[in-house]
Every structure is written in structure tokens, then in C-alpha cells.
Amino acid sequence: MTAELTVAAVASRLEELRRLYVPERIEAARERLARERPVPAEPFALAVARSLAELRALCELAQHLHAGRRR
To answer: How far apart are the C-alpha atoms of 12 and 4, rounded to whole Å?
Structure first.
């Protein structure tokens, strides 16, 4: 279900966004983001390597399962 995009609905939403907007300095924004973002548990390269290994294992499993159906 999509919201009706009338002029009044758009104007109302923009007014709500104006009311909720809180300006902040770049330094404060960086500090807030640093607090809100979780620290990665592992380096990016290791996470990518692990994900690729999992993907390869899934591909091999799919090939094995599909090969079993052909028999």
C-alpha cells in the first residue's frame, strides 16, 4: 500500500521533517556517528574473505544437489 502523494500530504510531511530536523556541527555529527556505528568485529578484508568462502561453499553445495537430481 503506497501513500497518496497529494500536495497537502507532501506539504504535511515536509513540515514534519522541518520540525524534527536538528542541525549539528560536523564535529558533533562525526562524534554521534562514531557512537552509533558498531565497531567491526573483524577487519574488512577478513570479513570479505569469509563471506566469499561461505558463498563458494554454498555454490558447491548447490552444484552437488543439482548433480544428484540428474542421476
So the answer is: 12
Please determine, for residue 62, whether its predicted confidence score (pLDDT) is greater than 80.
Answer: yes
Task: Residue 15: name the closest of 23, 26, 25, 7 by CA.
Answer: 7
Find the DSSP H helices in 1-71.
7-20, 26-36, 44-70
Contact (Cβ atoms closer than 8 angstroms) between residue 7 and residue 13: no
Rounded alpha-carbon distances, angstroms, from residue 35 to 28, 30, 40, 65: 11, 9, 13, 45
pTM equals: 0.41
Rounded Cα distance, 34 and 23, in Å: 17
